[in-house]
Specification:
This protein has 160 residues and is of the alpha+beta class. Helix content is 29%, strand content 35%. It starts with a strand and ends with a strand. Bound molecules: coenzyme A. The site of coenzyme A has 20 residues, from strand 5, helix 3 and helix 4.
């Protein structure tokens, strides 16, 4: 993965020792959504990903950003589809600790996930809640476009 010597930024696959921090950050994001978004009714789903950190399942992946030697954020994604039918990369969670936001980590984490798409991955997708301005802006600035979804969330799609 990528290293940025100017900010001591390291992007690497998640390890079992990262799991408590990943879980905590995932729950912070959920609480923020509950406070901010009307009708937010999802339940935390990070267990599927922490299980895949412990025992890789071939579909779910998690990468971590370390800034100045400290855990600073993570991205969790899933590879859907097959080599023959074509694949889609779904970005399921992307979170940076509040004190590390605004330094390009979100952009680096997203790029790291997309750069690891296996062959014949044609599309990246995500969904965001309408008041999530930071994440919506990040996706818009990295080439995703909005698509309609049933329900309150907004779909995002990018051709790879
Ligand atoms: C969304 C999030 C990951 C962005 O992380 P970040 O490290 O602060 O983002 P970056 O510094 O890489 O910024 C990326 C781009 O998004 C834009 N952006 C980031 N935060 C923004 C904000 N609050 N308002 C407007 N634009 C914003 C930046 O301008 C930047 O654009 P640029 O690179 O062209 O200048 C972070 O805010 C976060 O963890 N949010 C909570 C978790 C969440 O809701 N995740 C998405 C749902 S899964």
């Amino acid at each position: 993965m990528k290293t940025d010597p100017t900010d001591d930024l390291i992007l690497r696959p998640a390890r079992a020792s990262d799991i408590p921090r990943i879980e905590t950050l995932h729950l912070i994001t959920f609480e923020d959504h509950r406070r901010r978004e009307t009708g937010f009714d999802q339940t935390p789903f990070i267990d599927e990903f922490t299980a895949a950190i412990r025992a890789p399942d071939g579909a779910r992946r998690v990468a971590v950003a370390e800034r100045r030697g400290q855990f600073a954020g993570f991205v969790a994604w899933t590879i859907l589809g097959s080599y023959w039918k074509g694949r889609t990369l779904a970005v399921n969670d992307l979170s940076v600790l509040p004190q590390h936001r605004g330094h390009g980590l979100g952009r680096h984490l997203l790029a790291a996930a997309l750069s690891q798409a296996p062959r014949r991955t044609t599309t990246a997708i995500a969904s965001l809640w309408p008041n999530n301005i930071a994440a919506r802006e990040l996706l818009r600035r990295t080439g995703f476009h909005e698509v309609d979804l049933p329900g309150p969330a907004i779909g995002y799609r990018k051709r790879l």
